[in-house]
Amino acid sequence: MTKEEVLKKYFGYDSFRAGQEILVNGILSGRDTLGIMPTGAGKSLCYQIPALLMPGITLVISPLISLMKDQVTALNQAGIHAAYLNSSLTQGQYQTALRNLIQGRYKIVYVAPERLLTESFLWAASQIEISMVSVDEAHCISQWGQDFRPSYLKIPDFVEQLQVRPVVSAFTATATAEVREDIAAILGLQDPVTLVTGFDRKNLRFSVKQPADKMAATLAYIMEHPDECGIIYCLTRKTVEEVHNALVGRGFSATRYHAGLSDEERRENQEDFIFDRKEIMVATNAFGMGIDKSNVRYVIHYNMPKNMESYYQEAGRAGRDGLPSECVLFYSGQDVVTNQFFIDRMEAAEGMDEETAALVQERERERLKKMTFYCFTNECLRAYILRYFGEYGDNYCGNCSNCLTQFEEKDVSETAKNLIGCVKTARRSYGMTLIVDTVHGSKNSRLIQVGMDQNPYYGTCEEEPIYRLRQILNHLLVEGYLFLTDDKYPVLELTEKSEEILNGGTLLMKTAKEQPKKIKEKKPKK
Ligand code: ADP
Ligand code: ZN
């Protein structure tokens, strides 16, 4: 059979998507392969199709039991002999599966990375012909990636122990340069065929808003988008409950998903959403892995997520069908605090030493910072996202809230000078809140306790509202006039550029022009 015939026979598709063919050909010609494609691009077929055409067995390493189950079920339904080996199996089931594996009953076998170096698995592996080891979610091998999993480091050890080196292929949706290099280096890919497909999703409109009342903003949005399917992501279970209650209380067709619900209820709610019995899904980030619903018209982030990887993955669940869809992020300063709290509480993953755990935490803080900058940038949001993922493009997409907003440049030099001056003259380093409160002349007790009411810049920006001071301070951070440390309690520090402003340099900042409220025209009824 040709690869096209396999595609048609087992998967029912007529043609490969851009990129898939290159990767499939790479593997079939015996080359190692690295595929970097956004979620939904169709990575699975890239290894499943060669797996069916190669003589031996393909092992797929995957981090999540639920993903393995879904994939194997789908393959079995397509008439392909596949199985998984992970901790969800009883000892008896595991032994049976291993026996079947050795007898050559499977073509594709999903394995949890923890299993690879166990005696029983190594022995089984020595009895069979392994044509390919395919690493799904390959970013898990990198300490630079989110979801670093130390057990992924077992993969290269495992490959090394095989008598014949199989083709090694790796796939991920995380494309930052560090991660890409880590994957190739740690897995020991040999001159891999590497393919990065476009991360841009042109049909998605991105916007960031800072509503004073998120609930009201959410309700308003939903009311303006009747009969459309959407996902609302919240940071905590508690917020999911609140938003869900508010929606259901007002008669919207909504359901919810988070780790606090029983398996049964989660499954039911998920199906209600997938099969269009409920229009709106309110969920934590626990929702969405492996879900393929094409007609999601909007994804609202009720809270800012912890990093750009999560954001783009979650927002990217909108508009899988290619039709215009919206990704709205509601930012508030509290979101940063909540995320910081999560990072502080992060526990070392199994097998991770203290040093590594601290490093991972530090990188999480860096990523949170970049996520926060996304909420404050005045440039094209799409350009910001693509640059984050290592792609370069235009700085104007015409389809994001920044490209669609008229900005006016305002001179904020005076306020900037006061903020920087305050940081410089403080006796020690403080966080953003305290500095903002100081120049604003607030009378809170912590400020007085540390003597910041005596600071020469105390009250110098009395007139500016706090939110505005925060905006300007964020602008200073984005532009590198101040630096926010990655510590547990991040503090502000001067940079080389700070003096420029103190010495009378001008700083312009783009601010959204107040637009006269347009009266929305009602669509005529069809
Ligand atoms: P990823 O792993 O990259 O997130 P999947 O492998 O889950 O993406 O594929 C996403 C969806 O695209 C699936 O429903 C899959 O069946 C579909 N798909 C993949 N390749 C093709 C193709 N060549 N033609 C049509 N649909 C495809
Ligand atoms: Zn844009």
Topology readout:
Layout: H1 3-11, H2 20-28, E1 33-36, H3 43-53, E2 57-61, H4 65-77, E3 82-85, H5 91-102, E4 108-111, H6 119-126, E5 130-135, H7 154-161, E6 167-172, H8 177-187, E7 193-196, E8 204-209, H9 214-224, E9 229-233, H10 237-249, E10 254-257, H11 263-274, E11 280-283, E12 296-301, H12 308-315, E13 325-330, H13 333-345, H14 354-376, H15 381-388, E14 407-411, H16 413-425, H17 432-440, H18 445-449, H19 466-478, E15 482-484, E16 492-494, H20 498-502, E17 508-512
Parallel strand pairs: 1-6, 1-7, 2-4, 2-5, 3-4, 5-6, 8-13, 9-11, 9-12, 10-11, 12-13
Antiparallel strand pairs: 14-17, 15-16
Helix pairs in contact: 2-3, 5-6, 13-14, 16-17, 17-19
The structure holds adenosine-5'-diphosphate and zinc ion.
Cofactor: Zn(2+); Mg(2+)
Domain Helicase ATP-binding: 24-193
GO molecular function: 3'-5' DNA helicase activity; ATP binding; DNA binding; four-way junction helicase activity; hydrolase activity; metal ion binding
Walk me through the structure:
By secondary structure, the protein is of the alpha/beta class. The protein is 41% helix and 15% strand. Helix 13 packs antiparallel against helix 14 (354-376). The two termini are 51 Å apart. The structure holds adenosine-5'-diphosphate (ADP) and zinc ion. Residues 380-382, 396-397, 400, 402-403 line the site of zinc ion (ZN). The site of adenosine-5'-diphosphate has 13 residues, from helix 3. InterPro entries: DEAD/DEAH_box_helicase_dom, DNA_helicase_ATP-dep_RecQ, DNA_helicase_ATP-dep_RecQ_bac, Helicase_ATP-bd, Helicase_C-like, HRDC-like_sf, HRDC_dom, HRDC_dom_sf. One of its GO terms (cellular component) is bacterial nucleoid.
